[in-house]
């Protein structure tokens, strides 16, 4: 194929280095856990050290508006995060990454990173206890990153905002419910949900 006839590079190729012909692990900490949307060969409960699940991303469309932004989850620095890690077979990696970039990277609020995660309660099919996985970490320099919000401000925003996909509280409730179903207890999110539910309307 002549140089001017080469296929365009996929969007993800500029953000993440994936070895051709290799499997890829993907870490989910929010809706990716129960609705990955891509084919996978195996999945495991896992812990990502160094980052925690946080309502730190302003939502201008799905759970809020530009005038009244809601809040959605991001992986922010510090602590650790329990989630689900998926192994994508090599043949499915390009399709999975195309899908993930369309789903997660439309406004570039996340930085995709390959980070070490620890499997919980078992090993992978290859006998691994830790794997290097693609993780979508919040970009702290992005305008939609909400730095330093205290609990009262987070509660007020989630209780009062809504967007194209409905009230912000529904996003929080759905997250807490699915985490419980997966056996992942997030005390901070559960407390937040209780506070939002009892917030004066």
From TrEMBL:
<dbReference type="GO" id="GO:0005737">
    <property type="term" value="C:cytoplasm"/>
</dbReference>
<keyword id="KW-0808">Transferase</keyword>
<dbReference type="Pfam" id="PF04752">
    <property type="entry name" value="ChaC"/>
</dbReference>
<dbReference type="GO" id="GO:0061928">
    <property type="term" value="F:glutathione specific gamma-glutamylcyclotransferase activity"/>
</dbReference>
<dbReference type="InterPro" id="IPR036568">
    <property type="entry name" value="GGCT-like_sf"/>
</dbReference>
<dbReference type="GO" id="GO:0006751">
    <property type="term" value="P:glutathione catabolic process"/>
</dbReference>
<protein>
    <recommendedName>
        <fullName>glutathione-specific gamma-glutamylcyclotransferase</fullName>
        <ecNumber>4.3.2.7</ecNumber>
    </recommendedName>
</protein>
<dbReference type="InterPro" id="IPR006840">
    <property type="entry name" value="ChaC"/>
</dbReference>
<keyword id="KW-0456">Lyase</keyword>
<dbReference type="InterPro" id="IPR013024">
    <property type="entry name" value="GGCT-like"/>
</dbReference>
<dbReference type="GO" id="GO:0016740">
    <property type="term" value="F:transferase activity"/>
</dbReference>
């Amino acid at each position: 194929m002549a140089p001017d006839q080469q296929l365009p590079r996929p969007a993800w190729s500029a953000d993440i280095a994936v070895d051709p012909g290799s499997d890829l692990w993907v870490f989910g900490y929010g809706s990716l856990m129960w609705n990955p949307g891509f084919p996978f060969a195996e999945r495991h409960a896992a812990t990502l050290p160094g980052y925690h699940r946080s309502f730190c991303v302003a939502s201008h469309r799905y759970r809020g508006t530009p005038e009244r932004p809601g809040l959605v989850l991001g992986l922010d620095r510090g602590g650790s995060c329990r989630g689900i890690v998926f192994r994508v077979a090599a043949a499915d990696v390009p399709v999975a990454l195309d899908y993930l970039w369309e789903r997660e990277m439309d406004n570039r609020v996340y930085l995709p990173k390959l980070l070490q995660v620890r499997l919980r309660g078992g090993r992978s099919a290859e006998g691994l206890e830790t794997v290097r996985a693609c993780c979508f970490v919040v970009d702290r320099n992005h305008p939609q990153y909400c730095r330093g919000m205290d609990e009262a401000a987070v509660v007020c925003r989630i209780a009062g905002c809504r967007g194209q996909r409905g009230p912000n509280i529904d996003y929080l409730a759905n997250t807490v419910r699915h985490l419980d179903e997966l056996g992942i207890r997030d005390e901070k999110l559960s407390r937040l949900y209780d506070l939002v539910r009892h917030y004066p309307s």
